[in-house]
Write a structure and sequence with these properties.
By secondary structure, this protein is an all-beta fold. The chain has one domain (1-110). It has strands spanning 7-9, 24-26, 41-43, 58-60, 75-77, 92-94, 108-109. It has a seven-stranded parallel β-sheet with strand order 1-2-3-4-5-6-7, with no helix packed on it. The N and C termini lie far apart (42 Å).
Length: 110
């Protein structure tokens, strides 16, 4: 038997989740659009809001990784960090608005 768990805490967090598993969402509408994305962690209002199939992402802070759709292996810590990222992979952003306009590149910024 396989145990598949996703933990939503907050109004409409993991709202559209269908088959996504091993996700953790804390905050209003965090991981709101997730459908099949796995192993994501969202802490903060609207963090990873648009994520649908992305995986292994960590977002901490208001609207961090907000526009991510299927990007993976990203870490965003701070208000609006990696906000515009959609399909980028292996990004690390630390600090308020860090890599805010990054869309699909592979970068690190503190």
């Amino acid at each position: 038997m396989h145990l598949v768990i996703s933990i939503p805490r907050g109004y409409q967090s993991l709202y559209t989740n269908t088959n996504g598993s091993f996700n953790t969402a804390f905050g209003t509408q965090s991981l709101f659009s997730n459908t099949t994305g796995t192993y994501n962690t969202a802490n903060g209002l609207y963090s990873l809001f648009t994520n649908s199939t992305g995986y292994f992402n960590t977002a901490s802070g208001f609207r961090s990784l907000y526009s991510n759709t299927n990007g993976h292996d990203n870490t965003a810590n701070g208000v609006n960090s990696l906000n515009s990222n959609t399909t980028g992979i292996h990004n690390t952003a630390s600090g308020s608005h860090a890599l805010y306009s990054n869309i699909a590149e592979e970068r690190t910024r503190q």
